[in-house]
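thought: fold this chain, then report.
action: predict
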Amino acid sequence: MYSFIYITLSALIGWIAWPCHLLPLAIIAPAIIMRSPSRATATLSALAYYLTASSGIPHGAAVFFGHDSTLEGAALWLAAGAINSLPWSVLWHHDSFPRIRTIIALIILAIPPLGLVGWASPLTAAGILFPGFGFAGLALTLWLIVSAIDVGPMMIAALLIASLANVDYTEPSNNIKAIDTHFGGVASGSRDYFSEYQRNLSAIDLASKSKARITVLPETVAGTWTGATAALWKNLATHSSGIIAIGAEKLLPRNGYENGVVLMSKRGYGFFSQRVPVPISMWSPWTKNGARADWFGSGVIRFDGQRIGYFICYEQLLVWPMLITAYNKPGVVLGLANDWWAKDTAIPGIQRMTIQSWARLFGWKMVDATNL
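observation:
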């Protein structure tokens, strides 16, 4: 009976914190897992938390891979949940150093290799709780998480600091414009050049109406970036008073491709690669045609006099890319996503909530553009 209560509470927290967007509630999940009466209950509690937090994956994967792929989508969902649950299962102990074990589990799930599927991290709540505090806010969130294991003065003090931080926080102003699009099934790795041409013309029309310092369009909207694509955008970029950012792909000389963002202005353009493509559907090193990964890339580039950080789709859900980018101190941050396959799920909202929370934590000037 007690085991059922722990598992049910974990599932409810995963659902309410992520699909229902009450992110601070996620900090309680580790306490429930580590205070479970047995290793089996802790494992199932962790699994319940991660599965409900990512409940949109089976439907989204079925749309992405085709309507006959429901079983494959469910398998990916369960496999990712099992990977995220593994550290909690291994580190659980009925009474030995639960706080230290909790910290170790959160770190393991924040960094590669397990960090490559380490979504739904309770650490993401740091931006909601301690906006503008940066890495100190991350440490305070960790303090709050471990304090929840044994509720006492430490937890009360951390909550008081969080309350004061939110009262004093002011959103940074910016002159950045995100343009969401509704181009539908713009799939990574596809090579429909006529559709890409039509889509680029539409994107150019949308971008031409912006007077912002930086204008951002979603992931993959430009399709395969070639000399012909650059020529299409050259006139607008040359006469623009700011920077235009658009998601694109670049074919590699031998095999495979890079997914990334193109930044352009009157001074020229540059292609900058995504660091963490989606495992299996994009990053598949066992095949010749997958996307290249750059797990330890900074995610920050200097372009046209500005330090610009960027997160492309899947990266927005993970802790690791956020920490590397924060360490490299961007002046502005851009989010680009292509969520047409998940538009009927909670995934786009979770993605946006996650990057916004990290932006609040580090005080980033940030916008994010999504294609649905």
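thought: worth noting. The chain has two domains: 2-168, 176-371.
final: tokens above.
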